[in-house]
Write a structure and sequence with these properties.
With about 110 residues, the protein is mostly helical. The chain contains six helices and two strands, in the order αααβαβαα. It starts with a helix and ends in a 5-residue tail after the last helix.
């Protein structure tokens, strides 16, 4: 489902500069709406070491909903981290994302 470019830019890249936000928005592809209402058939995150990076300024998936998702999924708090970014922390704070992924992959608790 395609989103209007300005809407997508504000939703996903609200903490990037105009030029970068426009660039990344131009690379977006339509996504099926089925991902939002299809039943979950397998909870792989329960079988492998997993973590959850909560994004405090996310406009696409609001922080309060992320917290509820983490709670419902049963993620231990020491396997989560909150970061002060929008929806794309890998673009705005790549070093922090990298360190979080490494810690989770190595099984280190936060």
């Amino acid at each position: 489902m395609p989103l209007p470019p300005d809407f997508a830019k504000n939703m996903f890249y609200n903490d990037l500069g105009e030029e970068q936000a426009s660039h990344w928005t131009s690379l977006l592809k339509p996504q099926s709406v089925k991902v939002y209402d299809s039943p979950l058939t397998h909870e792989t995150y329960k079988e492998i070491t997993s973590g959850y990076l909560l994004t405090k300024n996310d406009q696409a998936f609001k922080y309060d909903y992320q917290v509820k998702t983490v709670e419902m999924a049963g993620f231990p708090q020491d396997m989560t981290m909150t970061i002060e970014t929008g929806h794309a922390p890998f673009l705005t704070k790549p070093e922090e994302v990298k360190e979080f992924v490494i810690q989770i992959a190595e099984g280190k608790k936060r």
